[in-house]
From TrEMBL:
Species whose genome carries this gene: Halobacillus faecis
Top-rank taxon: Bacteria
GO CC list: bacterial-type flagellum basal body
Name this protein carries in UniProt: Flagellar hook-basal body complex protein FlhO
Entry coiled-coil feature ranges: none
């Protein structure tokens, strides 16, 4: 009985984690450049149940021999293994704002590869983002909406001096006749990127990055000024998955309640000595 109790509880915990992941996706359905997390469920190791016993041989000494056999397998529940971001390209939205930039992947050599803008966080460390909702700070530097510097191909902050500048499709930014090239990075395996929040990613220890990729790396892209990349969250699909996850949670809850009632009867009624 206790095995079923723990199996139902494990199912509830897994569904709760999945619901939190889906809720976070829905909350960021309109966040530019947001990449939806996809939860993966996995079953706990399967156990093999075996019956153990013995038989008494009708002899003078009552000799016993082992008597066992396979009963079958037992699944011990499920858990949410991890949440992996989906780096599918989001749709583009025209904003008319000159500091908004959308990074469009035209060609990548790896199916799971992805491109990113290079930015610098408050600790001076390089981070990566798909959110091109940029602005210009009081000193004239191009920054993210959190104030992180947007970097050029040399890893230096870009000083535009104001909101008026042009960006070509190949990423060349022109300010008063002076040209800068936006810094980009490409990873052949986007699953190695770790979310840090606020649209930022960092590279895991196992990951690999190509700085300032180009045609020689088999990477083709374009920069669209006055546009933003939308979130790749599908609100309708996410809402349906949230409802299914909630129903699954309720089913496990009913099973858990039934086991609890059975255990109560075993303690208060079956075990009572009349």
């Amino acid at each position: 009985m206790l095995r079923g109790f723990y199996t139902a509880a494990a199912g509830m915990m897994a569904n709760q984690r999945m619901q939190e992941t889906l809720s976070n996706n829905m909350a960021n359905a309109y966040t530019p450049g947001y990449k939806a997390d996809q939860g993966t469920m996995r079953a706990f190791p399967e156990l093999l149940i075996e019956r153990m016993g013995s038989k008494t041989i009708p002899t003078k000494n009552g000799f016993k021999i082992p008597d066992g056999g396979h009963v079958g397998s037992l699944n011990t529940g499920v858990y949410m293994q991890e949440a992996v971001p989906s780096f599918v390209q989001g749709d583009l939205k025209e904003t008319g704002v000159g500091t908004d930039l959308a990074l469009v992947q035209n060609e990548v050599p790896d199916e799971s590869g992805s491109l990113f803008f290079r930015v610098q966080n408050e600790d001076g460390e390089e981070r990566y983002t798909r959110n091109g909702n940029f602005t210009v700070d009081g000193e004239g530097f191009l920054t993210t909406n959190l104030g992180y510097y947007v970097l050029d191909r040399n890893g230096d902050p870009i000083n535009t001096g104001g909101m008026e500048f042009d960006v070509s499709q190949d990423g060349e930014l022109t300010v008063d006749g002076q040209a800068f090239v936006l810094g980009l990075s490409y990873t052949p395996d986007a699953s190695q990127m770790v979310k840090e929040g606020n649209g930022l990613f960092r590279l895991s220890e196992e990951g690999n990055l190509i700085v300032n990729p180009g045609a020689e790396d088999g990477v083709g892209y374009s920069i669209r000024q006055h546009h933003l990349e939308r979130s790749n969250v599908d609100p309708n699909r996410t809402m349906t998955e949230m409802m299914n996850t909630y129903r699954s949670f309720e089913m496990n809850q009913r099973v858990l309640k039934a086991y609890d009632q059975s255990m109560q009867k075993a303690v208060t009624e079956i075990g009572r000595i009349s």
